[in-house]
Amino acid sequence: MPVIHVRMDNRLIHGQILVSWNAEFKIDHIIVTNDQVAADPLQVTLLKAVAPIGAKVSVLSIKDCVAYCNGNPEAEKENIFIIAKFPEDGLALVENGLKMPVLNLGNQAFVRGSKKISNTVYLTESGVKALKKLHEMGIRITCRMMPSDPDTEYWPVIEKTLPEWAK
Fold first, then answer.
1. Are 56 and 28 in contact (CB under 8 A)?
2. Whole-number Å distance between alpha carbons of 22 and 147
3. DSSP of 57-72, one letter per residue?
4. What is the pLDDT of residues 91-148, one digit of tens each?
5. For the residues of the chain, what is the DSSP string, one character each?
6. Which of 45-49, 57-61, 115-119, 126-130 has the lowest mean pLDDT?
7. For residue 44, how many other CB atoms are within 10 A of its CB?
């Protein structure tokens, strides 16, 4: 499978991706996937403008992302790094047919109704429910800002910190 990493980070493409994660995985293709972002021509233009030299950037809806990764012969030749905004996007990717053994929570900035898990991760109830479903499907949840961070299961931290939402 050409997808080498799936990250939820509501900053989308930024310096950590372009430098550290790119050095770790030798990314050929960054796919930003979120239905609202993909439908916004200004955001699409801006995201494509920050492409690292040599890497292709696509901004796709969830369904188009899954279709590209699962059925496009070009994708088979690429190291694809997927970035989505929210845990709900990760669940939608899986429900639409993307196979992923691990979902990495990157930065999840505060949004209305969210609660703090760590200094860089705030989750909404809907996000916790999405992560719970992914966890129950056997997908490992990690929380790594940088490739050098521990690659440990993060669901127990979420479950312990927000037990009322993790039920």
1. yes
2. 10
3. EEEE-HHHHHHHHHH-
4. 999 999 999 999 999 999 999 999 999 999 999 999 999 999 999 999 999 999 999 9
5. --EEEEEE-TT-S-HHIIIIIHHHH--SEEEEE-HHHHT-HHHHHHHHHTPPTT-EEEEE-HHHHHHHHHH-TTGGGS-EEEEESSHHHHHHHHHTT---SEEEE--B---TT-EESSSSBEE-HHHHHHHHHHHHTTPEEE--SSTTS-----HHHHHHH-HHHH-
6. 45-49
7. 17
- pTM confidence score: 0.93
Which residues does 159 contact at the CB level (< 8 Å), separation at least 6?
166
Cβ burial of 54 (10 Å; 0-12, 13-18, 19+) is exposed
φ, ψ of residue 103 in degrees (nearest 5): -120, 125
Q: Token pair of 74, please?
A: 């070009």
